[in-house]
Design brief:
Layout: H1 6-42, H2 51-56
């Protein structure tokens, strides 16, 4: 009877854990990138003015 390879099982478990953490990190980065862009599109204001516009006032 063959004995179990515990090192292989442990390595596979560690790899799965690292993969899950990396996916979570990428998901967080993706959320952070989309939020500022959405807010910039919804709130046009003085940030969109050119220096020529500010000199005329």
């Amino acid at each position: 009877m063959a004995k179990p390879n515990y090192q292989y099982e442990k390595r596979q478990k560690e790899l799965a854990k690292k993969k899950k953490q990396e996916e979570k990190r990428l998901r967080k980065i993706g959320q952070n990138d989309t939020q500022p862009q959405d807010n910039a599109d919804q709130a046009p204001g003085p940030a969109n003015t050119t220096p020529a516009d500010t000199q005329n006032t």
